[in-house]
Design a protein that fits this description.
By secondary structure, the protein is of the alpha/beta class. Helices cover 42% and strands 20% of the residues. Helix 3 packs parallel to helix 4 (66-75), helix 7 (168-179) crosses helix 8 and helix 7 (168-179) packs across helix 9.
Length: 241
């Protein structure tokens, strides 16, 4: 993984020196090329000059917000992956940031190891997209399984027409399950593709988030997420189970 990381350049935009230095040091340790900016305007200028592969972006900046930075990037046609760093973790803030084109959302205080894992995962996903990997998404970025619909552009989920509010991690997990509907996915696959972690005995987090999804989906219809004992999980309809 480190060999891949050496080819990736990350821009960290954060006005807090301690956080900025910590994130830079962690990313450099893992082999990334890293630069930083203290304000939104400085960050936008560095994006134009350096063309980074990924941006770690604080939401509360002294000049413009991180949301506005991301909006300007997307309006200009720049699809560089963006991970927000913020102390604001309300559902409305999460939806706002992701609907403006952000790719992930990390709440302060955060684990540096988890942030680095998210960076790896986003870069892997971006490389797969650039390579034209096949997907079950239609042109509008919508996934559908039975009466369940997930829109990756608007970060919305509905079942039987009823809106379902999901956290960013719940949304990523559901999107991955729906993209591979009918297939049994191992816990290791889910950890790597949703959380970006190498499998190291962390499977309990998968069980936890599957449970969260079931609590939100199952009251609206027949169970869709099925357990394959000793292996993992599959999302399938009652007719295909």
């Amino acid at each position: 993984m480190r060999e891949t990381a050496t080819r990736s350049h990350v821009l960290v935009i954060d006005d807090e020196p301690n956080i900025r230095d910590l994130v830079q040091a962690a990313l450099r340790f893992h082999g990334f090329s890293v630069d930083s900016a203290e304000t939104g305007d400085e960050g936008l200028a560095k994006v134009r000059d350096q063309r980074p592969d990924l941006i770690v972006l604080d939401v509360l900046l002294p000049d413009v917000s991180g949301f506005e930075v991301c909006r300007q990037l997307r309006d200009s046609g720049d699809e560089v992956p963006v991970i927000y760093l913020t102390a604001r973790d309300t559902p409305s803030d999460t939806v706002t940031g992701l609907s403006l084109g952000g790719d992930d959302y990390v709440t302060k205080p955060f684990s540096v190891e988890a942030l680095v894992a998210r960076v790896h995962a986003l870069l892997r996903r971006a490389r797969r997209d650039e390579a034209g990997a096949e997907s079950d998404r239609n042109e509008e970025g919508v996934l559908r399984v039975d009466d369940l619909e997930l829109n990756e552009r608007t970060w919305t989920v509905r079942r039987a027409g009823v809106p379902i509010e999901l956290s960013p991690t719940e949304f990523r997990l559901l999107a991955y399950l729906m993209s591979n509907a009918g297939q049994v996915l191992t816990r290791a696959q889910l950890l790597e593709n949703v959380w970006g972690w190498d499998y190291a005995g962390q499977s309990q987090i998968v069980e936890t988030y599957v449970s969260y999804l079931r609590r939100k989906l199952d009251p609206l219809g027949p169970a869709l997420i099925h357990t394959q004992r000793g292996v993992g999980y599959a999302l399938r309809t009652r007719d295909s189970s």
